[in-house]
Structure formats: C-alpha cells, structure tokens
Design a protein that fits this description.
Pfam families: Thioredoxin (PF00085). This is TlpA family protein disulfide reductase. It comes from Chryseobacterium phosphatilyticum. The protein is α/β, with parallel strands linked by helices. It has a single domain, classed as Glutaredoxin (3-Layer(aba) Sandwich), CATH 3.40.30. The protein contains 6 helices and 6 strands. The protein has a 6-stranded mixed sheet. Strand 5 and strand 6 form a beta hairpin. The protein is globular, with a radius of gyration of 16 Å. About 8% of the residues have low confidence.
C-alpha cells in the first residue's frame, strides 16, 4: 500500500510539473482581447492579478483548485493575467513554479495605457486588483471586483457551464 501511495505521489508531481508553464506570453491589450474572443466555444475565466498583490495571491489557490477540477472539461478555459511589470517576468515564472500554477498565465505589458483598456473590459472597474471576468460565447457575463471566494467562483462556473 505504501508503494502505491509513493507511486501515485510521483505520478501526480509529474503531472503538475508538466502542466506548469515554462514561458509566459507577453501581450498588449488588443492581443489579450483577441485571445479571449478566440475562445467562444468556452466558458472563459479571466483573472487579473499581480505577484505583489496580497489579496490576489491569497485567492490563487482557490482558482487552481477550480482550474484543476474543470481542466478536463472541453468547454472550460482559465487565464491568469499578470499585471506585473515586464521587467519582473522572471519573478512571475518563479511564482508559477513555486505556487504550482496550472492555469495559463499571460503577462499584460500595457501598464501605460491602463486608463484606455480597463474601461473596455469593464466600465465599473476602477483599476484595483484582483478582478475576475467571466465570458460565455464570447460575451462578458460577470464581473467580480475584488477577492473571490472558492464557493462563488465554483458557483459561477457551474451555473454557466450548462
């Protein structure tokens, strides 16, 4: 039995390591918008965060649990959009590895134009993070300003995957 547990642990570790990104794509707003729109067949969860944002880091384990739970669902996709500076890209990669981040991470290198693209995502967004947006069939269906509980995240996903 102990051998089976050890083999299972090694297998799970390999899956997690394989699923982690080794590179983070860098995008401008327009590229991110196109990327989200290409996912019209999916329920898309887009979380804006940063490695230096305590509430963001606090909620990420919930997002990873939910991402791992739904990752086998062909109609589900999650993007974690880092608002860290481009100069901190290596820190973001290290964070992904250390925190076992399995959702796709994108570095949004468009800080100078925040006042332009933030209202395009959501008029009510004042620029604070974390923020989570949900898209279904290419249309925004929910905006969550601030930290999101695991229960609320799961409820929103479950209601909209049907």
């Amino acid at each position: 039995m102990k051998t089976l547990i050890k083999i299972s642990a090694v297998f799970l570790f390999c899956i997690i390591c394989k699923a982690q990104q080794t590179e983070v794509p860098v995008m401008k707003y327009e590229d991110l918008e196109k990327r989200i729109q290409r996912e019209k067949e999916h329920l898309v969860v887009v979380n804006f965060w940063a490695t230096t944002c305590a509430p963001c880091v606090k909620e990420l384990p919930h997002f990873m649990e939910i991402n791992n739970e739904y990752s086998g669902n062909a109609k589900f996709k999650m993007f974690l959009v880092s608002l860290d500076r481009l100069a901190d890209k290596e820190r973001v990669l290290k964070f992904i590895k250390n925190k076992n981040i399995t959702a796709e991470v994108i570095l949004l290198d468009d800080i100078k134009r925040m006042n332009t693209w933030i209202p395009k995502f959501e008029k009510e967004w004042d620029g604070n993070i974390p923020v989570t947006l949900f898209y279904k069939n290419g249309e925004k269906i929910k905006f969550n300003d601030g930290e999101m509980s695991k229960e609320e995240l799961k409820k929103t996903i479950t209601e909209n995957l049907q």
